[in-house]
Amino acid sequence: MEDWADEARVPPGLADRALRRRAWKPYGAAVLVAAMIAAVAVFVTGQRSPDPVIRPLDGVTLPARPSPAPTDVRTDTEHSPPTKLIAAGRMAVSAYYRTRREPIENGLTRVRYDWSLYDPRTDGYEQTSYAWLDVAPGLQVAAVVEGDLLGKRVGVLDMNTRQVLRWYDLEHTVGSVAWSPDGTRIVATAYASYPNIMQGKGDQMGPVMTASPRTGYYVIDTRTGETAYHELAALGDEAGKPSNMNGRQDLGWSLDGTLLWAPTSTRPDRLFYTLDGEPRQAPEGERCRRGTSLSAISPDGRLVLGGDGMPTKITEVATGRVAGRQQVLQLHAWADDENVIALGCAGKCENEFDNGLVLVSVDGSKMTQLAANRDSNGEGAWRWVLTLR
């Protein structure tokens, strides 16, 4: 339920279970890239231009991220999906996707992703034709998968010019991309066939319970142009071990960028590997929101986000004491040390699927609507990607 909630409608009787257990999947994190190879001057309005970093001939020039990053609150409560940038504190909605279903052979259904990407030129969002994308910290560059459903080319797209700075040609088809926290490397998850296949009809539609077609992954280093492929079999349903029967099993990064993680549908919710694919223990002290690479711990290290279900709670890391409760459905990401981007619901929350992004204080006393409410269980509902600004 947690991993395919974006693709299947939830039957009326499952609302409470879905609320407590469904994980929302913002994918991704991002960098600031501004030119190919040659050194260029990067001008940020009102700031001193940082010196560009010169990379080898096979890499791309990665300018420093804007410093300080913007921290203002930006809202669009009139449009769903949004037409203007949504942001609060250190985080922004860098992209969003909508899903649509199409019948295929043998009575099965394929779920497609339609991606829209933040456009700094208009301060809004523009629909793209890419199979998958992820935005690097700074909201200046995106990693994109060229293709219809899967692709054999990954590009680094300058979001300001909409030009691809570099294409990486791959031998294996990939279905997702994710930036490392420092915005220099990309992990691209490889699949032998398209993973988002559903069976059943109407409210009974669910994922096909067969082995995932994940075959491995690439680590792409934008500094050198190196693309290294590693085999990594998908998780199955082996008794007594972490398992995952979902078709899509995209890889993500640990918070310090030294390890990769693969999702499970059990506990723990992820397994860690070195960049070469060797199993490792979870990094000490790392706590992320389920199914994402977003830290659950506040920037100052004092507080940690609790699980889904109204009311939510935030506790102290050191003592476990409850620091505050919030009248929201889910806590998604820290805007700053005192405020969290969350999922709130309309009115008195008579229908938890009538919801939208809000900014809520730790003590729950202050709440600002960031995005318009929408039917999250409806056909074509938009799902946001949160990225560091």
UniProtKB/TrEMBL annotation:
Keyword Transmembrane helix present in the record's keywords: the answer is yes
Task: Check the record and name the InterPro entries matching this protein.
Answer: WD40/YVTN_repeat-like_dom_sf
So which domain of life are we looking at?
Bacteria
The UniProt annotation puts the region (Disordered) at 57-81
Asked if Transmembrane is a keyword of the record, the answer is yes
Which of UniProt's keywords are assigned here? Membrane, Transmembrane, Transmembrane helix
Question: What parts of the sequence cross the membrane?
Answer: 27-46
Please give the name of this protein. WD40 repeat domain-containing protein
Q: Which species does this protein come from?
A: Nonomuraea monospora
